[in-house]
Automatic annotation (TrEMBL):
This is Carbamoyl-phosphate synthase large subunit. Large subunit of the glutamine-dependent carbamoyl phosphate synthetase (CPSase). CPSase catalyzes the formation of carbamoyl phosphate from the ammonia moiety of glutamine, carbonate, and phosphate donated by ATP, constituting the first step of 2 biosynthetic pathways, one leading to arginine and/or urea and the other to pyrimidine nucleotides. Belongs to the CarB family. InterPro entries: ATP-grasp, ATP_grasp_subdomain_1, CarbamoylP_synth_lsu_oligo_sf, CPAse_ATP-bd, CPSase_dom, CPSase_lsu, CPSase_lsu_oligo, CPSase_preATP-grasp. The lineage of its organism: Bacteria, Pseudomonadati, Bacteroidota, Sphingobacteriia, Sphingobacteriales.
Length: 939
């Protein structure tokens, strides 16, 4: 059936600010869906309150509404735009819940709006735990023994009937919020209360716990002809008991028998067909008994999910793009395979490689948090790696995590205490996969590890083999490693860094040079969806060690953009927004744009975004070999946050041109001590400071600058390790702790300006002129990280004199640092005195916010300036903000109820929202202003 011609305008509901459990995978899905609908000539409107996403950019949709996700906002849009249909399946649970709320109050009916991509009744069936359980029974799909409870008494009765261990699953929540396992009767009352309060309908499912069973996810698509295809089967490395968002996952499934897989497929298709008459995508989760392969259904989500983005990147099949077209009436056989361009979309991808996803955690930001993983998701991001084998992909994923690991162990960071290791295996946390390897190194038998972790033996055998390889490697010196054995190590995913550590007396560069002598070179394979059965036309690559290289280098001028790696607190989706605009600008400037990144949730790793995509770790060895192959004109590091910036020194040493501000000038700004010296030379006020490399030096500096002092390491992002201390004892503890976690780092000791306000500026410099993008005034005082503070654009209470000083210092610093591109500066303001706290000559988290507020494509402009294609005077910049824009941070403390929620110099927020007000009498603003007054008076 061709598309529904009555649908000419569609509203896509976004997912709002990033929180743990709902991250930028929905930015990717919503962006892809919007572009897909625009291809069909459909006018697209988007509602989303997140300013940091590419989804809320004019390059994605015709009309962007940066509004709170409420029915009032929806109705405002429906009054302004002639909307024919709403697509709520691209914005996660937030969008679905809002769709249901709008349906319940008759909003869709009032404005004659079709709900596409899902059946509203289907949402009810899947989110209501009792309805879902009964539906599964009706269609003959197995489910765990369970009872619904709407009260404490009902929950107690259910527990008595089913028996322990139990799992409590609240209805209508995201990422397992409020859920958990109950192993003993004594724990039940508190867990039941928590679940009932977490559910908006005060309803929980009390269910038999199938701990230790295997967990699988299937991604499905269905068209209006009731054709259903399975896009991807994903197996969890971790068994049931750990939220799939916190689990290492693998595709395709590694340990399924064919019989079990076929049975699972059939059940998934039956489930999708049972939840309403709609065309679109859904995610189904199953649990499998490892003893007899009995299957039970866990849940079905009739929407794009976290796994949908992963499945899209894993297979090359653009799920959200096709799902959007199915929602407007197309059938699968009428659509084109986006990779081959010659076959239809009515096919199931075949993988001749393995992908591994590893979640990224930020427990360091939540001191005192319970790090044990369970039903409630705690990861803040994820990485994905592609290899020819599971173990190669696993090692590459470990290299991608941005946790200073060279791979799966063999890097000097192993745990050696057997008691600690076994406790970690029994009580899983972020590092369990590393501790499995550590256990094997200490000689713990495979069966003992399997019993305590319940991880399938096949996976453990793969990890155990690494220990055997490392034992053999230690027999050799670098110059006598047999070529075949060296090649085997590389095919098993070992980095040059790991090999150098294992050999003990050689550098990473030595290992690199030796393998090049032996002709062991990284080659690149194409992600083609069909295991090379049909020719692919999409330049989407991963690396391995074989003979044939499928990445054909063009003779065009090239620019490589280094991505930001996994999302984490302090480095989030705003950097991916910047990278996407960098790619667009490079193309517009006539370059072939090449993206290197490993984050499956992001728009930058959509194979349609760059001219060429390398889905690879942003890890030195991988980046180096891509550069040596492609020979670009230069590399952009300014847009990818700290992940990309930390490559700058090695790139310069390799003779690679860094596009924009030079490494030397970026390093000057990052080195807190040298930067303060520059401020002194420029006669720009700054807090008294000193630099220390030991606790003794820090105590001496503190006595000179005076307490309270701000203690911080150089070269960090997101306020990592920062603290405010008021005496020698606290200072000594803080410095010792920093040097333990960041050995060799300089520690900066600043006098902390008590009762000071904080403000910041963002600007672009082309080497001659400086354009102030925007100046913001913070609500929270100095001492609270800027990412955790509400910020108002433009300033609302800073005097003209203060604002002039901020502008003057911004211009002076931009020129002194020889900035080419972006510059963010943070200020402390005390009365009429303005102090510079720090300057960052790179993209910052505030630029997307300012760009959305003023409706100016600042990253695009900055990239063209960096490339030297334009001067600032070439752009006609017209700001459209009337009134004020407010950036408000969003936190995920509900995931860590046990931690201290007090804000300080180390960033804790996971996302942000934007709100516009016409004037300062707005009630929302008055509440913030009162908060600011309270903060300053309290200090």
């Amino acid at each position: 059936m061709p598309r529904n011609t009555s649908i000419n305008s569609v509203l896509i509901i976004g997912s709002g600010p990033i929180v743990i459990g709902q991250a930028c995978e929905f930015d990717y899905s919503g962006s892809q869906a919007a572009l897909s609908l625009k291809e069909e000539g459909i006018e697209v409107s988007i509602i989303n309150s997140n300013p940091a996403t590419i989804m809320t950019d004019k390059v994605i949709a015709d009309h962007v509404y940066l509004l709170p996700l409420t029915c009032e906002s929806i109705e405002k849009i429906l009054q302004e735009q002639q909307i024919d249909a709403v697509l709520p399946t691209m914005g996660g649970q937030t969008a679905l819940n809002l769709c249901i709320e709008a349906s319940n109050i008759g909003l869709w009916e009032k404005y004659n709006i079709k709900v596409i991509g899902v059946d509203v009744a289907a949402i009810e069936k899947t989110e209501n735990r009792e309805e879902f359980r009964q539906l599964m029974v009706d269609i003959g799909v197995g489910v765990a023994n369970s009872k619904i409870a709407n009260s404490f008494l009902e929950g107690k009765e259910a527990a008595q009937e089913i028996g322990f261990p139990l799992v409590i699953r609240p209805s209508y929540t995201l990422a397992g919020t409020g859920g958990g396992f109950v192993h003993r009767k004594e724990e039940f009352d508190a867990a039941l209360n928590r679940g009932l309060h977490a559910s908006p309908t005060h309803e929980v499912l009390v269910e038999q716990a199938v701990l230790g069973w295997k967990e699988f996810e299937l991604e499905l698509l269905r068209d209006s002809n009731d054709n259903v295809i399975i896009i991807c089967t994903i197996e969890n490395f971790d068994p049931m008991g750990i939220h799939t968002g916190d689990s290492i996952t693998v595709a395709p499934g590694m340990t399924l028998s064919d019989k079990c897989y076929q049975d699972m497929r059939n059940q998934a298709i039956r489930m999708m067909r049972s939840i309403g008459n709609f065309a679109g995508g859904c995610n189904v989760q199953f649990s499998v008994n490892p003893e007899n392969e009995d299957i039970i259904a866990i849940e079905i989500n009739p929407r794009v999910s976290r796994s949908s983005a992963l499945a899209s990147k894993a297979t090359g099949y653009p799920i959200a793009k096709i799902a959007a077209k199915l929602a407007i009436g197309y059938n699968l056989d009428e659509l084109q395979n986006q990779i081959t361009k010659t076959t239809s979309a009515y096919f199931e991808p075949t993988l001749d490689y393995v992908i591994v996803k590893i979640p990224r955690f930020n427990f360091d930001k939540f001191k005192g948090a319970n790090k044990e993983l369970g039903l409630q998701m705690k990861a803040v991001g994820e990485v994905m790696a592609i290899g020819r084998t599971f173990i190669e992909a696993l090692q590459k994923a470990c290299q991608s995590l941005e946790t200073n690991r060279g791979g799966l162990g063999a890097d000097g960071r192993q745990l050696r205490n057997l008691e600690e290791i076994m406790d970690s295996l029994e009580h899983p946390s972020a590092d369990r996969v590393f501790h499995i390897k550590d256990a094997f190194e200490l000689g713990v038998p495979l069966e003992s590890i399997r019993k305590v972790t319940r991880i399938d033996k096949w996976f453990l055998v793969q990890i155990q083999e690494l220990v055997q390889l490392e034992t053999e490697l230690r027999r050799y010196q670098l110059n006598n490693i047999p070529r075949d054995f060296f090649l085997t190590l590389k095919q098993k995913g070992y980095s040059d860094l790991q090999i150098s550590w294992l050999l003990g007396n050689v550098s990473e560069d030595d290992v690199y040079a030796r393998r090049k002598e032996l002709g062991i070179n990284r080659v690149y394979k194409m992600v083609d969806t069909c295991a090379a059965e049909f020719p692919a036309h999409t330049p989407y690559y991963y690396s391995t060690f074989e003979d044939e290289n499928e990445s054909i280098v063009s003779d065009k001028k090239k620019i490589i953009v280094l991505g930001s790696g996994p999302n984490r607190i302090g480095q989030g989706i705003e950097f991916d927004y910047s990278c996407v605009h960098g790619l667009i600008a490079a193309k517009e400037a006539g370059y072939e744009s090449i993206m290197v990144n490993c984050n499956p949730e992001t728009v930058s790793t959509d194979f349609n975004m760059a001219d060429k995509l390398y889905f690879e770790p942003v890890f030195w060895e991988h980046v180096r070999e891509i550069i040596e192959l492609e020979k670009p004109e230069g590399v952009i590091v300014q847009l990818g946050g700290q992940t990309a910036l930390k490559m700058a020194e090695r790139l310069e040493a390799l003779g690679v041109k860094i596009i924009g501000t030079s490494f030397a000038d970026m390093d000057l700004a990052e080195d807190r001590g040298r930067f303060s010296d520059l401020l002194k030379e420029l006669n720009i006020p700054y807090p008294k400071y000193g630099v220390a490399t030991s606790a003794e030096e820090a105590l001496k500096v503190a006595s000179e600058v005076g307490y309270p002092v701000l203690v911080r390491p150089s070269y960090v992002l997101g306020g990592q390790g920062m603290s405010i201390v008021i005496n020698d004892e606290d200072l000594e503890k803080a410095v010792v702790n920093l040097l333990k976690n960041l050995p060799g780092n300089q520690i900066l000791i600043d006098h902390f300006l008590d009762r000071a306000e904080e403000a910041e500026s963002d600007s672009i410099c082309d080497g001659e002129d400086v354009h102030i993008i925007g100046m913001m005034e913070h609500i929270e005082p100095a001492g609270i990280h800027s990412g955790d503070s509400s910020a108002v654009l433009p300033p609302f209470s800073l005097s003209e004199n203060v604002q002039q000083k901020m502008e003057e210092y911004s211009i002076r610093l931009a020129k002194a640092l020889n900035v080419r591109g972006l510059l963010n500066i943070q200020f402390a303001v005390k009365g009429e005195d303005v102090y510079v706290i720090e300057a960052n000559p790179r993209a910052s988290r505030t630029v997307p916010f300012i760009a959305k507020a003023y409706d100016v494509p600042y990253i695009n402009i900055a990239t063209k300036v960096m490339l030297g294609m334009n001067k600032l005077k070439d752009f006609q910049i017209e700001r459209k903000l009337k009134g004020y824009a407010i950036k408000e941070p969003v936190f995920s403390f509900s995931k860590f109820p046990e931690v201290d929620k007090q804000l300080g110099p180390e960033m804790k927020s996971t996302g942000e929202a934007i709100r516009f007000i016409k004037d300062l009498q707005d009630p929302y603003f008055r509440e913030l202003y009162n908060k600011k007054s309270m903060f300053l008076n309290a200090q």
